[in-house]
Amino acid sequence: MNSVFSGRKKDTFFLLLFLFSIPLILLIILPLGKMVTGPDLVDLARTIKDPQVISALFRSIYTSLAAVLISFVFGTPLAYLLARKSFKGKKIIEGIIDLPIMIPHPVIGIAILGLAARNTIIGQFLQTMGIQIMGTHTGIIAVLTFVGLPFYINTAKAGFEAVPLRLEHVSRSLGARPWQTFYRVTLPLAWRNMVLGMIMCLARAISEFGAVVIVAYHPMTAPVLIYERFTAYGLKYSQPVAVWLIFVSLFLFVLMRFFAREKTS
Amino acid sequence: MLKVSNFHLNLPEFSLKNINLEIKKGEFFALIGPTGSGKSLLLEAIMGIIPSNSDKNRGKIYLHDRDITSLPPEARGLGIVYQDSALFPHLTALQNITFGLKYHKVNMDKARKQLDFLVQKLGIGHLLDRYPPTLSGGEKQRVALARVLILNPQAILLDEPLSALDPAFQEEIRELLKSLHQELKITFVMVSHNFPEVLYLAGSGAIIHQGKIVQQGKIQHIFHHPNSCFVANFVGIKNVFPARINANKAFTNGVEIKLSPESGRQNHNYLSIRPEEIILLSPDRARDNSVDNVFTGYITGISCQGFYFNVFVDVQGVKFQAIWSQKDMADQGLNQGSKVTIGFRSKAVHTFRDKG
């Protein structure tokens, strides 16, 4: 790979691109760096031994993973359908999928609570099934799926679209049925994008606050706990929890990327 | 063997209209047409890749008298090879070749023998463990052919199999296809717009234009006896003139051209002569008995095509186009404006009625 600054003649255009990129990189690095280096090691050690923190971190992880799993199971067929078929109303469905990205997240929480209220058919159905939304893990998973799903579907769809249709045609001509073609040709070629979609979905879910705080202030996820400690005790008490959330998220994302790279190399 | 009967396919952007084809067992059939004429679409409709059994579409496709119109591609008993090979990039060459075996309930001993035979025949033994991105164009096409051949399909559809290859690989795969056809008596249906390839490989074929079959028959016949101005121009007959036909003579712009004795020309209104049929006569051969049409004219244009020249000769306002060698041109010292004597056999003159 050529370095931006290599060669006898400096490439002015790429140099400009690099200079314009610096403020953005600093915008991300500086606040996060300050926060990560803010708390001392004693505070960090004390925080991670706090049962409330451990519980909130684990809750964030497994509710987010559950949202990823739901997105994968139900989002994959939809992403494939959107990538491969043209039908009336396709654009509307694509727009609907993108809605959770656009609307304010407290609105999502309010909408889900409204749908599951006792005076609605769905709310009554959920009640007869013994399913509670307000203040439960189910509610948290529901909103996390809501906010994370578009990221998975759009990324997986792009992966399916990148698989040449001709390969699927050839597979069919060789005797494979549509599902066999999907399993043996499309899936192995789109796998990387699907994992990337899951990473993005996980990232969105693990960081979600606005919708979760409406549906379930308790039991607390890590972002809600950070918010609570900030409003109740100030910056000093919220920062170590935030740092641990960053560490755990970073570990998960690196692991998933490594896993994806191993499988596709 | 493979029969397409009154087939109509209506897609939003294109349609195939009243397609009728009959391809015999063991035949090498070419579907020829300009870009966008619908030949690849027809091939994919035969393969079943484009569903053709909706209300908007009509007609039938039969394979050995079995109606396959409504069958999905995996149940048709056909194979397809695309110009870009379409090998599965995540599988090795061997995994590509054996991909379809599990769906065809193939006897593994028989499959192994067939695999050994194909590996040897196609010369791909050293490629089996390699992945497609590391193969050359010719190697990819060999693997793609093996992948189809191992399943013994009743016919193999080839979608411009040579067009994406370098000239050296084109010749290699062309020879391979010829040899496979001769040895294994496989039925091939090939889409192409490359005339040398079609003339070399195919015995019969059809010309498709704007979704319609405009002529079909033996390839040599189509290339020498077009039935319309479109076909004549498409197959490279540069000399196509409106003409008045009277018995064994044709008149075009006042020039009288002798025709071979033949009946049924009463309503023909065009004549065509292939450019390679027009020969350059030296003044002492002007009364050559082998050519019964001899004219004197002037060269109005010379276009160098590498190893040969396209030469335009004006004979009383009729512009003939001939293909002559560098030697022909040099021997007589010909240039633009030179006076030349040209000739062609009456048998080389074809007449037809163009309805357009």
Task: Please explain how this structure is put together.
The complex is a heterodimer of chains A (265) and B (356). Chain A has 265 residues and is mainly alpha-helical. Chain A has a single domain (41-264), classed as MetI-like (MetI-like fold, Orthogonal Bundle). Helices cover 80% and strands 0% of the residues of chain A. Chain A has helices at 12-37, 41-48, 51-84, 90-102, 105-115, 121-128, 137-162, 165-173, 178-206, 210-215, 222-233, 235-264. Chain A starts with 11 loop residues before the first helix and ends with a helix. Chain B is of the alpha+beta class. Chain B has two domains: 2-224, 3-Layer(aba) Sandwich (Rossmann fold); 229-352, OB fold (Dihydrolipoamide Acetyltransferase, E2P). Helices cover 24% and strands 33% of the residues of chain B. Chain B is built from nine helices and 21 strands. Chain B has helices at 39-47, 93-97, 108-122, 137-149, 167-184, 195-201, 219-224, 229-234, 326-331; strands spanning 2-10, 15-23, 28-32, 58-63, 66-67, 78-82, 155-159, 188-192, 204-209, 212-218, 239-242, 244-246, 249-252, 255-258, 270-273, 279-281, 293-304, 308-315, 318-325, 339-344, 349-352. In chain B, the strands form five sheets. A six-stranded mixed sheet of chain B has the order 6-7-8-3-9-10, sandwiched between helices. A five-stranded antiparallel sheet of chain B has the order 16-20-17-18-19. In chain B, strands 2-1-4-5 form a four-stranded antiparallel sheet, covered by helices on one side. The longest helix of chain B has 18 residues, at 167-184.
